[in-house]
Design a protein that fits this description.
Helix content: 25-40%
Structural class: alpha/beta
Largest sheet: 7 strands, mixed
CATH class of the largest domain: Alpha Beta
Strand content: 15-25%
CATH superfamily of the largest domain: Aldehyde Dehydrogenase, Chain A, domain 1
Radius of gyration: 24 Å
Strand order of the largest sheet: 17-19-20-15-14-21-22
């Protein structure tokens, strides 16, 4: 690709900007070689500039009609498509994710999200207007005219994710839904793919200028240090945060958001085991098929999906051996995969080594996984009893990578005990035989518990795919997300960045959109 289009800077007020002399570099995880160019390290003064510009741009941006914001989102989508060749090439170099089909599909998803929110705001759906007409004759007290609509929160800080360099990054769903709501966006790019981030930022800036909108509504801040994120979250101009990442990182930033003099909403998508329950009828009839589906889901993207099924609950019965054998065989014949960056592999290896030391935990596949150099890794399957799982808090934490824990339940009823003890999850999966009355009865009982534990329940499928639709929920009780009333994917994601305002007895001459039309 043409490296000259990368400046190595931040993007501020519609132009590249380099502050100071401190820099960092991206790394090609497949070769472990540093990549050019170097990128400027963001700092608190940079945040101050970006936040000031965002605050100044907020009022004119929120006053734009929905059609104007829709045009912006559609123009961003078109600019990304025009940039496809260099964008995907750089993303592949920085993440080791293949261009086809993975990154190509992710770009299509990113473009689709932008167009979905464009259509939403063109229709004015996000305003959710409510009118309670005046009742002047009501006795004993007349009712005033009351009208409610949604307004944007203000400038939003968005933290790009490491595992989706396009769809959950600079031009991803958080940015798309915040801009759709009328909120300026300050993106903290992920340091593992700064080149990809800059290219996406350039597409957004070109779209903003083409639409004649204030350039302060978007900024990309690059940096590899925690202090940059802390400065963003604590700046008084920032009125909300969207974060996708680790539980440790999310909780640290949440603490900063809550300890401000004016606390702000923090929408974090963090850790999830995504429990996968196999009921007796399904295991009896589809053991090998389920193993194949699990192996694919657990190795997709080197297991670096926040929705991969990390813990598998299955009853002890003869067919469990067939599932175990097939899953072990597929793991043992999987070639080495490449993780996104050294930090992810280091944490993954450290977590796995700790789990292998837990009493009652055995490794049933991938015994040579530690031998792979650099960012390369092989899948690993661990196994324990339900009693061990419930007694060992470490086993109940997310493993981010190509590994899973098979938890063996002595009898089917123990699946309910497992469900009752789960923490908050993004997803929970039930594999059932819909022709088996016992399976259906057990599934009904499990469903009652899992509804309280997860944001999305999957039947006879795998949880890795997250459709961008009106019905989708990508969130869940803590620690899957920080606020389980909201989703970060789908139409409803825009609600994170809106707040309701009620107007009482407002004269018709002052009625705002959508009350100003018959």
């Amino acid at each position: 690709m043409n490296q000259s289009i990368l400046t190595g800077g931040h993007w501020l007020n519609g132009a590249p900007f380099r502050n100071g002399e401190e820099t960092f570099s991206a790394l090609n995880p497949a070769t472990m070689q540093p990549l050019e160019p170097t990128f400027a390290e963001g700092d608190a003064p940079l945040v101050e500039q970006a936040a000031r510009l965002a605050r100044e741009a907020f009022l004119p941006f929120r006053l734009c009609e929905g059609a104007t914001r829709a045009r912006l989102l559609e123009t961003i989508a078109n600019e990304l498509i025009a940039l496809e060749t260099p964008l995907l090439a750089r993303a592949e170099t920085e993440t080791a994710l293949p261009q086809r089909p993975r990154l190509q599909g992710e770009l299509a998803r990113t473009v689709g999200q932008l167009r979905l929110f464009a259509e939403l705001v063109r229709q004015g759906t996000e305003l959710e207007p409510v009118i309670d007409a005046a009742l002047p004759e009501r006795s004993p007290h007349p009712r005033p005219d009351l009208r409610r609509r949604n307004l944007p929160l203000g400038p939003i800080a968005v933290f790009g994710a490491s595992n989706f360099p396009l769809a959950f990054s600079v031009a991803g769903g958080d940015t798309a839904s915040a801009l759709a709501a009328g909120c300026p966006v300050l993106v903290k790019g992920h340091p593992a793919h700064p080149g990809t981030s800059e290219l996406a930022a350039q597409a957004i800036v070109r779209a903003i200028k083409a639409c004649g909108l204030p350039t302060g509504i978007f900024a990309l801040l690059q940096g590899s240090r925690h202090a940059l994120g802390e400065a963003l979250v604590t700046h008084p101009a920032v009125q909300g945060v969207a974060f996708t990442g680790s539980r440790a990182g999310g909780e640290a930033l949440i603490a900063h958001a809550l300890h401000r003099s004016q606390p702000i909403p923090f929408f974090a998508e963090m850790g999830s085991q995504n429990p996968f329950f196999i009921l007796p009828g399904a295991l009896r009839n589809r053991a090998a098929e389920l193993a194949r589906e699990l192996a694919t889901a657990l190795t997709l993207g080197c297991g670096q999906f926040c929705t991969r099924p990390g813990v598998i609950f299955a009853p002890q019965m003869p067919e469990l051996n067939a599932l175990r054998r097939e899953l072990v065989a597929r793991f043992n014949t999987t070639t080495a995969m490449t993780m996104l960056h050294p930090g992810i592999k280091t944490r993954f290896v450290s977590d796995l080594e700790a789990l292998q030391q837990c009493s009652g935990v055995t490794s049933t596949a991938g015994s040579d996984w530690q031998a792979e150099p650099g960012c390369h890794i092989r899948p690993l399957l661990l196994e324990s009893s339900l009693a061990t799982y419930l007694a060992t808090p470490a086993l109940q934490q997310e493993l981010f990578g190509p590994a899973a824990l098979l938890v063996v339940c002595e009898k089917p009823e123990e699946l309910i005990s497992a469900a009752q003890q789960l923490g908050g999850e993004l997803t929970a999966t039930l594999q059932t035989d819909t022709e088996d009355a016992d399976d259906l009865a057990l599934a009904q009982s499990l469903l009652l518990h899992l509804e309280e534990k997860a944001g999305r329940l999957i039947f006879n499928g795998v949880p890795t795919g997250v459709e961008v639709t009106a019905a989708m929920v990508h969130g869940g009780p803590y620690p899957a997300s920080s606020d389980n009333r909201f989703t970060s994917v789908g139409n409803a994601a825009i609600r994170r960045f809106l707040r309701p305002v009620c107007y009482q007895n407002l004269p018709p001459q002052l009625w705002p959109t959508p009350f100003d039309t018959p």
